[in-house]
Structures are given as C-alpha cells and as structure tokens.
Protein: FAD dependent oxidoreductase domain-containing protein
Organism: Aegilops tauschii subsp. strangulata
Amino acid sequence: WREGHWVVLCFFSTVWGWKYHVAQEQLTRANGLPAPVPESKFQAHPTRLMPLPTLLLLPLSTPPLPRARPCHGGRLTLKPLGCRRGTVRVRASSETTEPPPPSRTQMIMDKISSAGDEVGGAGGAYSYDALKRLDQICSSICSAPQQVSPSSSSKAPPQIVTRVQGPAPAADADLGAETFDVLVCGGTLGIFIATALSYRGLRVGIIERNAVKGREQEWNISRKELMEIVQVGILSEAEAEQVVTSDFNPNRCGFEGKGEIWVEDILHLGISPAKLVEIMKARFISSGGAIFEGKSVSSISVHDDLAVLQLGDGDRLRCRLVVDAMGNFSPIVRQIRSGRRPDGLCLVVGACARGFEKNTTSDVIFSSSSVKSVGDSGGSVQLFWEAFPAGSGPTDRTTYMFTYVDPQFGCPKLEELLEMFWDLMPGYQDTVLDNLDIRRVIYGIFPTYRDSPLPAAFDRILQVGDASGIQSPVSFGGFGSLTRHLGRLSNGVYEAVSGDFLDTQSLKLLNPYMPNLSASWLFQRAMSTRPGTDILPTFINELLFANFQSMQKLGDSVLRPFLQDVIQFGPLVKTLGLVMISRPQILPEIFKQVGVGVILNWSGHFVMLGHYTFLSSFVGPAVRPWVKSLAPRDRYRWERYLEAWEYGAGLDYRQEE
C-alpha cells in the first residue's frame, strides 16, 4: 500500500508541476522573456520546477522563485538547479567582497604617516596600521576577565619569567658571555634610569626591540620637571635648554562655558624627545653602557645568583637585576597580573597641525561639551581637551582629545574617537579643518589599576615607569611621572644592587604603597561616565568647575600641585571642605556618579594620606640620624620607608620660589 501511495503521489506531483510550469512559461513569453532552458541531465523538469512539498506552499498566483542573480556586497547567493528524488539541489556562488570606503581618519593618515617613522614607547607610532593594531589590543583588554582564578577558562598570558632554584648554569660564562649588573628592557624611557645607574659605576645594558630614539612629537612638561633630570646629574642645564622647542604662557582650564581659570608655568614647555633621548644615548655609551637594539626578550630564567635573558634571536644575556621599562603592555606585567582587565582606561587621540593663527597659549584641561555618545555601541563619554603650541613652526599646534572609560564590551575604539575628533576639534579651536595641514595623528591607551604601583613579584626583576603603574590615574603617564621618581629610583636601585638586596621583599620597597596615588583613583572615576545612572550630562563639568573654582580661591599652594598630578593631604582637605560648604547640593550626585563602594574605599586611602603626611613631617626627621647608623640591609629598608612616606604624601613636591 505504501509503495502504491508514493507512486500516486509522485504522479500527481509531476502532473501538477508540469501544469504549473506550462502556465508560468506562457506568462513569461507573454512578457517578452525567453523560456527557461534545462541546465542538467539530472533535472526532471525545467529550471524553475520545485518539488511538491515546496510548491504546495505557494499559491498559483505566486511567480516561481527566480534564478538568483549576482548581488553586490559579497553576499552568498543560492542558485536552484532543479530537483531529484524530492530534494532541491543548489549551487553556491560567492561574489568578491567590496571593501568599505576608507574612513576620514584612514585617508588623513595614509597621506602623512609612514611606518618607518615609528619608534618605541607610547605615542611613538603614527601609521593607520598601528592604529588598527592598538584598537585590537584595546578590544582584547576590554574583553579580558575582571578577576582571574586558577579555575578560569580564560587563556593564561605567556609565562615570560620562570623561577629556577639553584645557581645559573656556567655554560654561558664559559663561552665568554658578560654578566651585567643591570639590564634595562625598553630603551625609550629606560635610557634615563640606565644612564643614572651607569653614571654611578654599575655595568648596565639596554635591550630595545626597535632603535633607542625619541619620537618626533613633543613631550609637554613643566620646567620644574625638566630640572629634576638635571638634579640627578645626567643632564646639564645647557643641554636642558637645547631640548626645549617651545615655551608658552598662560595655560587655561575651562569647563563648558562655566568659567575659565588661567595659570602660569604648568606644562608650559615643549621638549624634543628625539634630541633628549639622543643626548642620553650618547652619555650612556660614553659612561660604559651597552645597547642591544633590534632585540626582544623571549624568556627570563631567574636563578639564585643571576637572571638569564633569552633573546628572540637566540642570544643570551646575564645580569644581577632586570629593570622592566617596557611600559603599559609589558609582557612581564601581563604575566604578573594574569591578564586581568584594568580598572580604568584613558583613551587619547589628537593631531599636530599647521595653520593656527591664535597660538600663544595652551589648554591644560578644557571641556567644550557635555556627555556624548560615540561609536557603534552608542556608549557615553565625557570628552576633554589639551592643546599646546608646537615648536616646529609658529602656527603649529598639538591638540589632544581624551576620555576616561571603564574597560568593558562596547568600549569606544580609537578610530571612532578620531572620527569624532575631526568633527569637534575645529569648533573647539575656532578654525576650519580644511585650512589645516595635518602633520601627525596621535593616539594611545593608558590602562590604570587600583593596586598601583605594582610591587615586585619575582626576585631580581623590578618594574619602573608606566610598567609599574607609578603614574597618576588621571595623567597620560610616561615622561612626567618618570622625572618625578627618577632620583628616588636610581638611588634605591643602586643601593639594592650594591648590597645584593635583590630578593622580592627588598625590591617591593622600591614600588611601595602610595596613598596619594591610590586616592587619585577617585578623580578618574568622577571624570568618567557610568552606564545606568540618572546623572545629568552636565554633571561632570559642574563638579570639575566647582573643584577648580575652590582651588583657585585657596591659592597656588592648593591648585598647582593638583595640576601636576600631586595629591597632598592639606590642600585636599581644604578643597573638599570648601566644596561642601559652597556647593552642598552636589554631594548626593557625587555618590551617584562615583558609587558608595568607591567612596568608602577612597576614604581608607584618604586616612592613610593623612597618616603618611604625619610620618613624613614629624617621624621622618626624628629617625633619619638613627637610620644612618644601622647595618646596610636595615638601613636600605628604612631609607625606603622614609621615601615611601615622603612620596606617598606628595611632600616631594615643593613650590618653586
């Protein structure tokens, strides 16, 4: 019965399909179109015939499914080839994908940038390809787990450092491999501490995957910060003047039309990194230092007596101490933090352009708008600006646009911010984009962690600069934070190497807890948007202006340290007190914006800031003579305590006369 049933069904299917095809063929010819021609001997019926189950779903008035035509945009198309045994056979046709039109950012960068101009360090790359690579890094950061546990399924970062019990093998020494006192990994900023240590008589080497050279784009600092390098003894005053390319005053702070505050001598110098690094390089080599350019570190084996560095080209180097100056994306730091997502990100984009007629003042921080949406995700950001005259020409000006965000899925990309930069910058600078000659496009990402600075995690390895997280969470890190700590670190590292205090606990004392740095985290949180809060888009600007207005009323002793990323207990208490008295209605909004948990955590650092201020001001001077009489290891430890109190309270900063 079943076989007879299917025979009857197939018979009616054939008749029905044939009648349907004849009717559609007549309709096709009536419209002046050619009749379909069979394409294969396997087709039971002409091209447009479908098996009964599909055909019965279509009313007689419905035209047959046409043969798919080539489509634009690279979509996959299906071409019906007929039926056999009740099935439809299709052939896939893939068209070539047409690339999307280039973005405005890509067109600008392709005209001006070259990969050959790139150097190591933050902001040392200017090409569009480098921008896309950094955006990929940013996306991977935002997708990383917030907390990493041993049972986590997340892929662990490469293990660069391995602890090996016992002394280093003698094979390298037998082959004549030299043993350095210190090897600095990362030469763009590492050249400064390397030179300071070499000047003290240590045998120092630098490993740099590129060339040890500074970028073309200027660094902006204050003269006081530049003179700190002179005080360390590795730069003369005459050389310091040689690297200054621009000097400008006054400097503006402003927030969305609410008012402006003008200050003097804050980030008022532009210096040439290319010239400065070249001077440091010459001094370093003349003092006996060795530079290994074009080499990268693939692994480090830490033994009881030495660290052995395996380089990418197969060479091996030995040293007593490894100084990690590889910046925010150091592979050693990634291993220590287990690939954990940072607590915050500062995203920076900008450009150096020629054609600004008004170019004698700078902006230290300026906000020209409230919270805005950016990118495909539509996430909200509060945008800030910095702008400085450049030394390459009288109408050359560098403009930065930056924002603080929580690293999470949907975080804006640098290219998206640059597209917004081209739209907003002309209005902010009162110019026309087409009238400007773009010289360089600048971009960077700066991750921040609450548990900074990063304490040493291995024997014989120490992080410095951005790798240690010593910079303020609200700054761009880099050169400014290095100059402030250069004297402290060079003294401490020299004493550690000289006394062989290179165990983990001794090295941790060189990157101690600093409450003023931890307290700065609240300010980054207050300057970033939080999804899901009912805060007005204008609130961040209102809060910042209230604080800056209060600091201005309290005088330079309060305002100037803050503008140079130094938090001190006395000025902070005065500012918070004046804000609470003059603007009490803003307090509930602060709790909404920042979060109760963050404020409670910050309160602990605030108390410790007061405690460190007391210790540095009263206990430190009393115990310093006693410390000098101690045994070397105890003296080393207490010297680090005294430095931690002073720098952790921000009391290393002293007002210029």
